[in-house]
Design a protein that fits this description.
With 310 residues, this protein is α+β, with helices and mostly antiparallel strands. 21% of the residues lie in helices and 28% in strands. The model has no long low-confidence stretch (mean pLDDT 93).
């Protein structure tokens, strides 16, 4: 069902193009915002907006009819090559997620998913949660590898979701970042929300969701530094955004400002970021469990090269 949203244009959007403003206000792509404007579904002070390049005035009454969201795709049950199992019992399965695999189906994603891979391999998954992400209690970016837990029983789903929400999970990542962060150990506390460009990226944005990343240097090399990272919150792209914000993007992460020359030299086609360890209280047994994931081949090779060059 279409949704009508009405608000006064905030002072911060004075002089902003309508398509850009809609993107920032409602998380739309610029092309999606342009389509809504072209359909006559945007008005300012009661007058229909004629073009996407029209400029806003602070305090004007903006009314937008947002189209209904597309139906989420169903998971495709098919085995995922290279997706190993780190642990499995009646309640949980912990996978070693390979590169290029999303956690669950989303609109616009046509590749393989962890959920589809588990179903395709015959694993039982909890039915709790939305149909396209049943059993999913946390996510890794498609091009971030490492340890990821999925609930098999309903009680495990409920308890793990609560544990993630209450930050009772030990999520450890390692990232190879450009340059040498100063200080070598620190915390990035900066709010994150969608990038104003509406291109799918995220950014440090005033008024965004609180986001806290702790990092510690494992080893410094000539061109890069290997960091151990502890997430206090779990925002989309959080490590990538925060490392870019302090001007030390993950090596290979061109979307967030990494040097393409360095990435090419190291043979990287994605960000050097890996979920090395995942620890939590077992949802039914009550004991603390931890799982570790070794570096995949592309990250291990890149690390060997920077070590050899130092």
């Amino acid at each position: 069902m279409a949704e009508v949203r009405s608000l006064h244009v905030p002072d911060g959007l004075e002089g902003e193009r309508v398509d850009s403003a809609l993107s920032r206000l409602f998380g739309l792509s610029r092309s999606g915002a342009a389509d809504i404007i072209a359909a006559g579904d945007v008005s300012l002070d009661g007058a229909e907006v004629a073009t996407k390049s029209e400029r806003l005035h602070a305090g004007a009454w903006l009314e937008v009819t947002l189209p209904p969201p597309p139906a989420p795709p169903a998971p495709v049950a098919e085995p995922v090559p290279g997706m190993g199992i780190l642990f499995e019992d009646d309640d949980i399965v912990v996978v070693n997620k390979p590169v290029g695999v999303a956690a669950h189906p989303t609109t616009g994603w046509t590749g393989q998913t962890v959920l589809g891979g588990l179903l395709g391999a015959g694993h039982t998954i909890a039915t709790s949660g939305a149909s396209e992400r049943q059993g999913i209690v946390h996510r890794l970016d498609a091009n971030t590898t490492g340890a990821m837990a999925v609930a098999k029983s309903e009680i495990a789903y409920s308890r793990l979701k609560r544990a993630f929400k209450e930050r009772r999970i030990d999520k450890r990542y390692q990232a190879l970042v450009q340059g040498h962060p100063d200080p070598f150990r620190g915390t990035v506390d900066a709010p994150i929300d969608r990038h104003p460009s509406g291109d799918g990226r995220f950014a440090v944005v005033a008024g965004g969701k609180p986001s806290v990343t702790h990092y510690d240097t494992v080893e410094a090399f000539r061109a890069a530094t290997l960091l151990d990272i502890d997430l206090e919150t779990g925002r989309t792209h959080q490590i990538r955004v925060h490392m870019s914000a302090i001007r030390h993007p993950c090596v290979g992460d061109m979307a967030y400002g990494a040097d393409p020359t360095l990435a090419e030299r190291l043979g990287l086609k994605r960000q050097w970021l890996h979920a090395v360890r995942l620890g939590f209280e077992h949802p039914t047994k009550g004991e603390w469990v931890e799982f570790e994931s070794p570096y995949p081949d592309d990250l291990a090779r890149a690390l060997q090269i920077v070590e050899a060059e130092s």
